[in-house]
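Bumping my old thread because nobody answered last time. Still need a sequence for this structure:
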């Protein structure tokens, strides 16, 4: 079988002053998913497609995730059919997108033992713009914000249209407004703190993603004292589709040596770009 290739002129790393030479580099002509690879293997051997899928998907994956997803990942991690390591990055890192970008790039570069990287982030204030897949292929959900991975598409669009802020079970501690509220209570007492927060934020819509836990109910009740709260039904379906992919839909595949380019439209969201 012939292999398509392109000619690439490269320098000798041992002698950068030497004349550059031309080398053949294999050229990608199509993209396969884990499922299609398993199907192709099963057609030429005894094991069935499901058995082949277990073997093919048995590669090591490095999951890099916002800490927002910790309690939700814990609910589905037992279903993962592959070996993985997971690293969480603090929610507060969103407050400094450029530093978050550097942190994520560093974690990606350190994934020496991984065959694939799954990045559980949206565009998130442009933090993932230009992230490079230097050690292995990387998969990224095509979403603008972490919020979109915990609710259906209509709710995700509401966040953009209403210019609202959002909260969930894991997105309460360390929030700037919580700190602000706590400082008002310390300085003026709870009654005055409630009044000040109401005057500052009562016109702002806050979307709360609930999974109907006792803690969710407590959070909603507390937030309603100072905010106009709209409760959104949470779902783990999107996280499952990312972590248990069947067809690769909704994921950007960034091949080793390429980078993420953010587009900011509502459909494609981001694309793969050569470095």
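Sorry it took so long. Here it is:
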């Amino acid at each position: 079988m012939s292999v398509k290739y392109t000619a690439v002129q490269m320098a000798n790393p041992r002698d950068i002053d030497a004349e550059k030479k031309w080398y053949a580099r294999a050229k990608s002509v199509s993209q396969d998913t884990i499922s299609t690879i398993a199907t192709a293997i099963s057609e030429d051997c005894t094991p069935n497609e499901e058995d082949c899928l277990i073997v093919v998907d048995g590669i090591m994956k490095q999951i890099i995730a916002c800490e927002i997803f910790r309690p939700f990942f814990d609910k589905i991690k037992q279903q993962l059919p592959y070996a993985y390591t997971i690293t969480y990055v603090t929610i507060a890192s969103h407050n400094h997108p450029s530093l978050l970008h550097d942190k994520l790039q560093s974690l990606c570069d350190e994934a020496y033992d991984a065959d694939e990287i799954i990045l559980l982030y949206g565009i998130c204030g442009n933090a993932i713009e230009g992230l490079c897949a230097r050690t292995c292929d990387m998969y990224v959900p095509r979403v603008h914000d972490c919020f979109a991975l915990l609710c259906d598409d209509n709710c995700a669009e509401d966040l953009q249209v209403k210019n609202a802020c959002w909260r969930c079970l894991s997105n309460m501690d360390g929030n700037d407004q919580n700190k602000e509220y706590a400082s008002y209570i310390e300085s003026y007492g709870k009654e005055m703190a409630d009044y000040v927060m109401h005057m500052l934020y009562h016109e702002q819509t806050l979307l709360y993603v609930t999974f109907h836990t006792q803690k969710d109910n407590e959070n909603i009740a507390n937030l309603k004292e100072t905010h106009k709260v709209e409760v959104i039904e949470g779902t783990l379906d999107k996280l499952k589709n990312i972590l248990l992919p069947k067809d690769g839909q909704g994921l950007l595949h960034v091949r080793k040596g390429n980078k993420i380019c953010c587009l900011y439209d509502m459909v494609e969201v981001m694309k793969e770009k050569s470095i």
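The mean pLDDT is 83. Let me know if any region looks off to you.
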